[in-house]
Amino acid sequence: MHEYSLAQALLAGLQDHLRRNPVPGRVVKVHVRKGELLSLSEWALREAWRLLTEGTELAGSELVLENVPVRVRCPACGYAGEARRLTEEGWHIAVPILSCPRCGSPVEVLEGRDLAIVGLTVGEAPGT
Ligand SMILES: [Zn+2]
Q: What is the reported pTM?
């Protein structure tokens, strides 16, 4: 399952970070940026997180997902910014297009493809 391996990678990264930078309490929220191009089920990701963190120091923590719009760069004309969107009538969502809004060349994706932990909310230590 796609979401399961993403959650595993997040957890491994976070545990490694916490070993080197311990926090004075329990992690209650994990803030994650989710790229617009990354298709995943938020429900499945949260569920995988709940299962994977069971019995770890992160048990009971909640994933807070923030959606990040796609940012692209055009090697032909140097444009950098948000991707052009397909917003024709009849489309319910605005689909990003991977061609340059300025010159139409294929663009490189700078941001919007992955998951990244951007912050933690730390609660009081248990028993206090
Ligand atoms: Zn261009």
A: 0.79
